[in-house]
Fold each of these.
Amino acid sequence: MLAKPIVRWLLPFVVVGGSYAGYAAIAATAPEKESTKETITEPTVRASSLFPTDHKVVITSHGELVPFEKTHLSAQVSGEVISWHPNFVTGGIVKRGEVLFTIESDNYEAAVLQAEAGLASARASLIEEQAKAEVAKRQAKKLSDKQVTDLYLRKPQVLSAQAQVKSAQAALKRANRGLEDCR
């Protein structure tokens, strides 16, 4: 019975002693560590004075150039271009309001003359219809009210002649605008 308590107390010392002996054996057979020297990793610095200079940077690259702004240009009238602005070239600068093209205006000048003639003819027709209406009005005084109609007094013809004058004025305005757009 006495042997059991001695074994209980002795067993931990035997385990600790055996562990130490194993460690000592491993440490004795292990290869030696190589000694490492500390290396200095400080950068070397060289100071120099700076002076401003012009330097042209050349970059070689591939890609597609896209303009910042695009402009669509078209004439409001058709015809032969007889002159254009000297700066109207690729990359040229043209100020707002400057004439870019001049288009041959002979046809548009003729259109203005035709429109003026049409307006004069329409005004003459209106004067004629107004005179006929005045004659019809004087003759209507001799007739009874039942026989006198708007058609007899030539009111529709006068309205038609007035409309023709307005139409001729609009045609003249269009022709003048076409002539102005040539410049």
Note: The helical segments are 3-29, 106-140, 155-180.
Amino acid sequence: MALREHEFEAETEIIVHEGQEVCEGQLLAKALGRNAVNVHAPVPGIIRKQLSVQSTNGFVSRAIVISLVGKFNLAGYPAENKFWRTLNRNEILYILQDRGIIRTATGQALHRLVADHQQAASLLVNVLDMEVFSGFEASILNQYTAEVVKACAMLLQASTMTEVIFAVNAQAGDCRRLHAEAQANKLPYRIEYFSPRYPHFFPNQVAEALTGHKSGLSALFVEPSTLVATYQAINSNIPYLNQFVFLGGNALKQPSLLKVRLGTPIGKLIEECGGFVGTPDTIAVNNPLVNGYIEDLDMPVTKTTRALWLLTRPETRQSQQEVCMRCGNCIKACPERLNPYFMNTFIMAGQASLVTAQLERCSGCAACSYVCSSRIPLSVHFKQQQKAGATHEN
């Protein structure tokens, strides 16, 4: 069970020891800093050891190994039905903090995001997937519509936000159930439809589409997967124990959307989907255009593991890097209207300081790298320079 969700998250204090027996949902590590979240035992068992693991996000994290022993006391039992409408703002935020709820797209503590967005006018439920072609969030919204709608009402109750905006793919299908649930719960809402275009999921892209300006929308962004965990925490007092993970790619026998326990090894998920049908050229985590690749199938599922892609060589489009042809495809593809060609030229010449403003605006969507005819890893160069700049500032 990994203890951190992203590289810059504050450390947690481990409050269990080797040989100790723990219950399902018991607190394992307590958040110490502003950006840290509590970590709970996803299964009952015995603490075997503490170690460091390579996370699916590419950094090293402390982890706790639990051997499954004993009885599940949360799974399979009727959920506690709290009268959540009687809770005040501070009580709701405390539950989110205590139960370790995060925004799944970013790994940020949800209670902190809600507190920091007290002046926001809207809660925007982003159903536009980060993971290309997965339909991840739309599937969760369709399966857990009632929970998502009630969680929206909970977050409105904990803030000054006055409406909910559902940002939905125009090709996602019928939204009648969403309309029915929202109206039954008297939720102030509207549904905005977006054409399927990459990368339309970024907040500034959504804001520009709705208002005409990248910074014109005062809203807190969350996803259906985040809202399901929010509902379970506030309504049923259940910590963040489960994770929705989509598995796809032509090297996988049966693409599936699974609900699994945190800490489950990646290899177990692949087995559940029928295993390999060939040798994957790459196993990518979350967005295959942006995120890193994994080689160890024992890596644990974390709160930000949203998708796994078992890709064949034709899918990865591996080829030798060539000299830039100055075709301009990267410029046409950039949603931020940057000039990746000039940015990369200055970076390669050791003059990255001349394109600092452009690097700050770069969203890291990797559209420029994908369309590059010369297979130049533009987004990799930009990300490395952004990281080097952040390290230098710190």
Note: The CA atoms of residues 301 and 346 lie 38 Å apart.
Amino acid sequence: EPSFDLPPFHGKDNVDDYLDCEMKVEQIFTCHNVSEEKRVPMATLSFQGSAMHWWTSLMREKQIMREPSIKYWNELRSALRIRHIPPYYERELMDKLQRLQQRNKSVEEYRQQMELLMLRA
């Protein structure tokens, strides 16, 4: 099994930066065929600073409340999205997508902008 490290994750203030980071981690998992049971431990090992503090307190809270710990990547991704993506973000993206116009952009620039908005929505 090849050895690799995920990029350090400190937590992201910018939603687009967070989503880019999430996508990168998923690409690495896929590229290296990381099994489902290894994804959460690997991802959380890359947490530093405020992300590490958030994860530690979340796990402690789950333990105190006698809730099951997070074992699967989709559960961790959901918890991270709740933390890093404001509730209005998706609605805002859909508005941007509906208002998107080509205007003075090339067809390629327009297509790229539309694909990015659709990917994030």
Note: Residues 45 and 52 are 8 Å apart (CA to CA).
Amino acid sequence: LACFVGYYVVWRVTPALHSPLMAVTNAVSSVIIVGALIAAGPAGFGFSKIMGFLAVILASVNIFGGFLVTQRMLSMFKKKGK
């Protein structure tokens, strides 16, 4: 459900607000990483540890993917060397 809501929010927002929206999205992902590390950190092995580990992996993919997309977008605006 969150994926569909996020998709429609991003596509319905005006272009001027895309940068602040993406900044908030990155902040939310960093909070998810911290929460996942707390869940995966305690000793023992259980359901919460597995879910915390999966959350760390998925949020990391989201954050690093965002950096890669941003890098590609910024490289499109660089002037070509002559």
Note: Residues 14-76 form one domain.
